[in-house]
Please model this.
Amino acid sequence: MRSESHMLQAARHQAILEMVQKERIVKVSDLADALKVSAMTVRRDIEALSDTGLLERIHGGAKILGDAGTHEPGFELKSTQFTAEKQAIAAVAAGSVSEGMAVGLSAGTTTWALAQELVKGPAITVVTNSIRTAEIFYRSTIVNAKTEVILIGGQRTASDALVGPVATQALKSMNLDVTFLGVHGMDPQAGFSTPNVLEAETDRAFLASSRKLVVVADHSKWGIQGISSIAALEDADELVTDPGLGQKAQAILAESVRRLRIAPLAPAT
Model:
């Protein structure tokens, strides 16, 4: 059992607040590891801080108070978070792509991870509004020469998405077999959402142009509401996530999306 006497409650609370302020969303397990205390102690601390209005308690962790749906973390920060989960999700999602498909990839670090899997697969046509995703295909030395990449233009966001009327109009002429959608949040009320209104509009254009919608989102997105909803949970043909998603959330999503897939994590080495 861990010894917790070395850090007083007040010091733990201050440390938790500093981590939440820095990361905006933190998991109980990460806090427990950083503070060298049990998960139960962290949960009690989070509850106490939530009761005093210093942070917001969420499933499996805590988030900065008032971290509204308009806050959009940069790509560089998001690309370092939950990397194992995103890689597992990408591996499962890539398995549903076959030769000759027209594939939409929205912006985001999970779809970026998916692109790194798709370059190793069959020849396809990729339509994306993500600069980072397009670069994966353009710079790859192993990508099939028959794979085509269409980068939709528009106004650049903090997450390196190209959005707005130019992107939306271009997507109206597309006919995609499947779109893989990365999201900022997923919630029973708000559905799948984003902190950028223009990005939501562009994402909805992806959906309207696609025969199938697959949402790729790690467990940390559960309970998060961006300012603008993209689609209801029921609109997803599939949701690929990771085992970190709680049982209650899994039950809700299993009842909502047409197919819920939990991507197994690779064993720790």
